[in-house]
Write a structure and sequence with these properties.
With about 80 residues, this protein is largely without helices or strands. It is built from one helix and two strands, in the order ββα. Keywords: Capsid protein, Virion. InterPro entries: Spore_coat_CotJA (IPR020256).
C-alpha cells in the first residue's frame, strides 16, 4: 500500500559530537501514485484552488510535520 509519508534511517557516526537523529520522515506528493489524470476529477473552487495550490482535490497534499500527530503526521 502506498503512503504519503516515508521514513529512512540516516547513517549515524559513532564520532558525531551531537545526538544523532535515527529516523527521518518526508512526504511524497499524491501525483506520484497516479499514472495519468483521470477525466472528471473533482475540482476546488477558484478561491480554494489558490489556497490549496492545485485545482484538483485528488492532487492536494496538506503537508504536516511528523511532530504534529494530531494534524495527520506520523504516529508517535
Amino acid at each position: 500500500m502506498n503512503t504519503h509519508f516515508k521514513t529512512y534511517h540516516p547513517y549515524a557516526s559513532p564520532f558525531d559530537p551531537c545526538k544523532p537523529i535515527l529516523e527521518k520522515a518526508y512526504s511524497t506528493p499524491p501525483n506520484l501514485y497516479m499514472g495519468f489524470q483521470p477525466p472528471n476529477l473533482p475540482q476546488f473552487t477558484p478561491l480554494e484552488a489558490l489556497r490549496a495550490g492545485t485545482l484538483w482535490k485528488a492532487f492536494y497534499d496538506p503537508w504536516f510535520s511528523p511532530l504534529e500527530p494530531g494534524k495527520g503526521g506520523l504516529p508517535q
